[in-house]
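Field: COMPLEX_INPUT
Field: COMPONENT_COUNT = two
Field: RESIDUE_TOTAL = 726
Field: MODE = joint
Values follow.
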Amino acid sequence: MAKMTLEQLRALRESKQKELDKRSVEGKDIQVIVGMGTCGIAAGAKQTFDAIVAALEKHNIADKVIVRQTGCMGLCYVEPTVEVVMPGMPNVIYGKMTSEAAEELVVKHLIEHSLLDSHIYDKPAVDIMKR
Amino acid sequence: MAYKNFILVCGGTGCESSRSDEIYRSLLKEAEALGVKQDVQIVKTGCFGFCEKGPIVKVLPSESFYVEVKPEDAHEIIAEQVVKGREVKRLLYQKDKQAAGAKVEDIEFYQKQFRIVLRNCGVINPENIDEYIARDGYRALEMALFEMTPEQIISEIKASGLRGRGGAGFPTGIKWETARKAPGDVKYIVCNADEGDPGAYMDRSTIEGDPHSILEAMTIAGRAVGANFGYIYIRAEYPLAIERLKIAIAQAKEYGLLGENILGSGFSFDVEIRLGAGAFVCGEETALLQSIEGKRGMPVPKPPFPAIKGLWGKPTVINNVETLANIPVILTKGAAWFASIGTEKSKGTKVFALTGKINNSGLIEVPMGTTLREIIFDIGGGIKGGRKFKGVQTGGPSGGIIVEKDLDTPISYESLTALGSMMGSGGMIVMDEDDCVVDVSKFYMAFCVDESCGKCAPCRIGTKQLYGLLDKISKGQGEEADLDKLEKIGKAMTKASLCMLGGSAANPTLSTLRHFRDEYLEHIRDRKCRAGKCKDLVVYEIDPSKCIGCGLCARRCPVPCITGEKKKPHVIDGSRCIKCGECFAACKFGAVIKR
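Field: COMPLEX_OUTPUT
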């Protein structure tokens, strides 16, 4: 890059801040956990993961959410599964979360604070939710 | 494709020496081999501080904190965590074997710390300017160039209460103001990165982990005092820090954050690196300036102070690395915020390199006013092997020993000086009951004899004389009158030396004499070293009632001076024994006695 102006520096900072924010976990109290065991991945969990990350960015809430992956949640019949943990909402495991359903999850659950009734399959089992 | 995981590998010198670079490369290779290169970003960062347990690898967002990682572990980390999303439990930090893997915030080492200077260490890739910029990097420079006048910058730094972190604690704002007001159109900014205390590595780690913070701060200083050129004086023994500085300078120049007409503001500032050959005295500011000028590194009398008449006779601001690293944060967060941290006269935080007989050695940053007890027993995890705490040496060869009864003193420049030590640059060496104060004083004095530049008599002759006396005492040939001589010469050096090297060289001796006079007397009267460190006073013997005649000691003895028949008690020939302690360490039956 050639020498920058003040405006270019500010624009660069803003774009890089978003990139680095994904790495940070500070101040993020919403967790979206994607089940990525073999079963999940086979059912398209990788695409779901990417779709969630994309949706978070689209709706500008990426700085509040940690997206992590975990192993199989035991609900292999409704993979891909996604667990959402956030304050003010019950912990929920959603099933059949294809990449198409990802945006609905972000908008409804994370932003509008309402559940996606058709996708609810389980609350987290005790052994998954140790903390 | 978005990254699912981020792996941060410590790239500080400590971890690099235990093969962290190999870990980094193995992780990259494994990620490639397992086809998950697109899923994981692998970053080499600066020091995490927890050097005791290095190499450190941290995985986000799961916050898995892996310790003592080996290159062979790379496969498991990638295969388990990145591919399957499972933590590698066996690598997680555990305080004791029962406790489950701890998250970073649960690790007591980090709990009492507060990071301003080390804000980016272990967080960003120090070789990538974009990551620095993303963490509000160069935001303070923007403010300094476009939103504040030089006077406002100086008054902000003054209001923050920031004082020099090199040890002396001179108010930074006043230094800048003096240089700004000094007549002259050419002025200089110098960064003192000539960290020379044995056991200190705060500045090295700061530069290795966050080099841009130093460049940004120097440019701000240049703007504040009206200087357009700066030097970073760093010792050649810090190759990694130098390499990262070079990369940072090149990147900053490319972005136009250093050089001509920065960000179109009309202000120009450039930086050059000057390598020191590793002389301790060159950490003294006037000697450092001499060295930059190409002369022999020797101090010159002050005043005139460098802020009035420094490099090539021009007004020069010379600040330590840690001092500079605070500057950008003070501007972005405000002087009031900074001044709210710390004690009445010592604001902000202090970085310490915690070493010696301590469980968690490492790099720590705590608010001023934290007590030594918190640092040593909470953050440091107490003394190794459950031994008894004896003292802690702050300020390296210029400081003094602080003992148990003073551990609850809140740390500040004044409080440490009142205890006969000093803040120093931040080395902190913990000693236990197996350390001998005479031996320690002798070690530091030997260091000062080597490092004295020889310009002034009190230091050149004084250090040599003190060393001679200490050596005599350690060999059991001391007289009680020697203790008075130590004090008399030491006090004379403190008063009459040209610079602080000589002025503080007697501190370790004087402070140990004050607190452990009985141990000195023991060496003199009883010819006894209770810690068993002074070789000439130690006698090794074999207890015939315990010796089973296995012969292990005799085989280990390098002289050899141990004889005896098989299955019969052995004997050490004291006249030939070199007191290496090999037999003592080798005996499984406790038959070798050290007296």
